[in-house]
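help with this:

***
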Amino acid sequence: MKEKIEFPDYFVTNDGIVVHTVTAFSEKDGGIIGIPKYFPLKKSYLGCRYIGEKPYSDHFPAFSDSIEKIKKSHPQYIQFVEEFGEEMIVFPKSKIKKVLRPKEIAKNILIQNFDSKILLDAKEYLKLVIDVFKFNISDIGIEGSIMIGCSRDSSDIDLVLYGKSKGDKLIKNFNLLKKDKRIHLYDEDDEELILSRRYKNRSFETMSQLVEQEKRRTCGLFNGRRFWLQPILENSIAKGRIKGRKLRRIGYEEGQIKIIDASLGKYWPAILEGIMEDGEAVSIECHDPIYMNQLEKGDFAHIASNLYIDIRNKKKFIILAPWLDIKQKLKRVEFKK
């Protein structure tokens, strides 16, 4: 495989595993960091997915489950990644046969005709986004089950928007979508629907907090179907902050942090700067999109996750990420300590 693979591309290994890149720093020692999304099956079962005519496992409840499966089936792919201070899955490029690019899928969806309800909705939603925000199709990608080719009639429409400037425009004007009668943006009546798509109780403690958090993200319903349009921070920006680090985990941090810089907190990954309760500075990286656009400069947040130090310059980091199988939380608090 000589093609360049970058976040948020997916790829397929020679043995058929469908893998999602999860970080802008995706290339490591001739391999690609990723987390498996779907595994090929020898036998089908009720509820499994199909890609073409081949059965695949439905995706696991959490990425940590996929990592455990890889540790058992392909332990040679597990590698310590200094930039994140953790063992991660690194797939050698020689084991990759196909790259799935969200931009290419979006372009194809827009120009083709479909009978499938999910693909028709995806096409109509793409057209709406382009019309309302005046984006180019080259700014938008479709990922998830539609891109992979294993969507169901009930599947979500998962869109990504490339570039900080485009993301700024989307977030500022997101409510313009409500002018279209096919759009519903979340309110308190959508608690159960939102909860069904969120990981455990990691970033909220009450249902009202959950709804308020979700309303800050660029997601909602189109024709009754869940959609999200996630602004992606340029890989060059995110990669520049990550490449060359030598992180070592030094503990687990849970407590209140004051946010002093949220200029990169509206995107995926969300990057924040804060001050911990002991007065030390810390960078906060959120590689899971559920934490995007939750905090602003001057906010206080309750944060729980692993704490790392860059052994080169002693800078501290808190990282919230889907590859970490620990309690994680990022929640705005309304009082100032």
The two ends are 53 Å apart (CA to CA). Residues 117-133 form the longest helix (17 residues).
